[in-house]
Specification:
186 residues, Cytochrome Bc1 Complex, Chain D, domain 2
Length: 186
């Protein structure tokens, strides 16, 4: 019993102090190029999957057809390609400098093994502390479903969607942030 108490007290003090020291002395990695923290990947994955199970949205309200893929390809090009890449194009400097690395979604397996719902859930809320943005307030639900259907079917897209992804037209000018309309009365 005595040994147990000593162990308990030591555990209660030593572990929190150790964790505090790890962060306060600069031992924890901060730069994107540093190695992951111990258990970082495991804990982040655990939290993500637990939350996903809790909040999984209903299946897509729009069909996975050619029109959805084409619209999704445009959404992808405008909002996702900078990090997740385009077919047969080199990765951008931005994506190479990130930690964790954004996976390629239009080449290889991507997220074709995930349901569109799972991808939709990630697109709406983003993934904290990874650089994956949440698009809930920036894209409409239809746009988020279109891009999620695109990602889920990235290995079997029709030529129309592929053409949009590979077309090398100049990127559209960034949408100006709307400002309050100027009133010309005076
Ligand atoms: C600023 C960079 C960035 C942008 C822009 C971005 N993502 Fe991500 N995304 C990431 C990173 C980094 C990860 C990896 C997160 C992780 O490891 O948990 C990620 C992860 C994902 C995942 C999960 C991948 C997996 O293997 O489970 C999906 C799906 C995804 N992003 C879809 C999108 C879509 C769709 C868009 C555009 C609407 C988008 N992302 C825009 C950086 C980005």
């Amino acid at each position: 019993m005595g040994k147990f108490l000593v162990g308990l007290i030591v555990g209660l003090i030593v572990i929190p102090v150790g964790v505090y020291m790890y962060f306060s002395t600069g031992a924890a990695p901060v730069a994107t190029a540093s190695a992951p923290m111990p258990f970082e990947k495991m804990l982040a994955g655990l939290a993500l999957h637990a939350r996903l199970r809790k909040e999984m949205p209903k299946p897509s309200p729009i069909p996975a057809d050619e029109a959805a893929f084409a619209a999704g390809a445009q959404v992808y090009k405008d909002n996702c390609a900078v990090c997740h890449g385009l077919p047969s194009q080199p990765p951008t400097a931005i994506s190479l400098g990130m930690f964790p690395k954004p996976p390629k979604l239009m080449e290889g397996k991507g997220v074709t093994d995930d349901t569109p719902q799972e991808t939709y859930w990630k697109v709406t809320g983003g993934i904290r502390m990874t650089g994956m943005p949440g698009f809930e307030k920036q894209l409409s639900p239809t746009q988020m479903w279109q891009v999620s259907l695109l990602c889920a079917n990235a290995d079997k897209l029709p030529p129309s969607a592929k053409n949009i992804l590979t077309a090398t037209t100049a990127p559209p000018a960034p949408t100006p942030i709307p400002t309050a309309p100027r009133t010309m009365t005076k």
